[in-house]
Design a protein that fits this description.
Layout (H helix, E strand, L loop, with lengths): L4 E3 L5 E3 L4 E2 L12 H8 L1 E7 L2 E10 L2 E8 L8 E8 L3 E9 L5 E11 L2 E8 L6 E8 L4 E2 L24 H4 L1 E5 L6 E8 L2 E7 L8 E10 L2 E8 L3 E2 L1 H4 L2 E10 L2 E8 L9 E9 L4
Parallel strand pairs: 12-18
Antiparallel strand pairs: 1-2, 3-10, 4-5, 4-11, 5-6, 6-7, 7-8, 8-9, 9-10, 10-11, 13-14, 13-21, 14-15, 15-16, 16-17, 17-19, 19-20, 20-21
Length: about 280
């Protein structure tokens, strides 16, 4: 992944990269209530700079900040993860954790401040600590979809796997998995960082409103478990607010089959079923 450097037309110089640290810029003079900061911060943020769209997806639960960051977000090599995040009086502080296609891992400490509906990230490249840079994000318009009915969706026919489900290892999961077709197809991306599975789903992938981090990913025998985290858009967001789609999946041949129950639904809810194909090689 190539990260260009560009001038923004002001005294600010933007360095697009994941190997950056951050210097703090205070945009607000008075401390804000952290609950209000959380509501303003959560969700998708976009910045168009240097001919690329940068998308930052922030999840805020109980004061903990997590999420994803990417450009050209259908390429698994471009996906970074938000770690060790916490709220501040003006925004959030977190670490961006990225591994490129050659296995080079970078971490960057980031501070962000919200003002006038924008999120300002003030950062410096780790190799150029004396030259701070800034990138300004605006929030993605929320997309809302009606929640599933209380009884769930009944599949047209039971799922018939192409082979017996595998006893899973992380390498069976890592990669790009696709659901659907056309411009609205869903891209499920799983990566392994420091022995931990991480991920994101998007589609279309040029807007944070169509994006959700995958969290709490773990394997138990033939089952893969993860949460699809909806923070400010998606099915049920209007009725129930931030929530997760709790997912169990199996892999057989090149199919990943998912059973999904939204966290706001009762245990009697009939799971939503989806079948993904993969893992596939990303093509430019």
């Amino acid at each position: 992944m190539k990260w260009p450097t560009m001038d923004t037309g002001s005294n600010t110089r933007v360095r697009h990269g994941l190997a950056f640290g951050l210097t703090v810029t205070a945009l607000l003079t008075a401390p804000r209530v952290l609950a209000d900061v959380a509501d303003d911060l959560r969700g998708g943020w976009m910045a168009d700079a240097g001919g690329e769209r940068h998308i930052l997806m922030l999840v805020v639960r109980d004061g903990v900040v997590s999420g994803t960051y990417c450009t050209a977000c259908t390429d698994p090599n471009n996906l970074a993860f938000v770690d060790d995040g916490r709220l501040t009086a003006t925004g959030a502080r977190f670490t961006l954790h990225h591994e490129n296609g050659n296995g080079v891992v970078t971490r960057a400490t980031v501070d962000g401040s919200i003002a006038d509906g924008q999120l300002l990230l003030d950062y410096v490249d780790g190799a150029n600590a004396e030259h701070p840079a800034q990138l300004v994000f605006h929030q993605s318009p929320a997309v809302t979809i009606p929640a599933a009915p209380p009884g769930g969706f009944v599949p047209a026919r039971p799922y018939d796997p192409p082979a017996p489900p595998k006893v899973l290892q992380p390498e069976d999961v890592v990669g790009l998995w696709l659901f659907g077709s056309g411009p609205g197809k869903q891209y499920f991306i799983f990566r392994q960082l420091n022995g931990q599975l991480r991920g994101m789903v998007c589609g279309p992938c040029d807007d944070g409103a169509n994006m959700a981090p995958l969290e709490n990913i773990h394997i138990d025998g033939q089952y893969l478990y993860f949460d699809i985290v909806h923070e400010d858009s998606g099915p049920g967001i209007l009725e129930f607010g931030p929530h997760s789609n709790v997912t169990k999946a199996t892999i057989a041949a090149n199919e990943l089959h998912m059973w999904v129950i939204p966290s706001f639904q009762p245990p009697t809810f009939t799971p939503i079923e989806m079948t993904l194909l993969g893992p596939v090689r990303h093509m430019e």
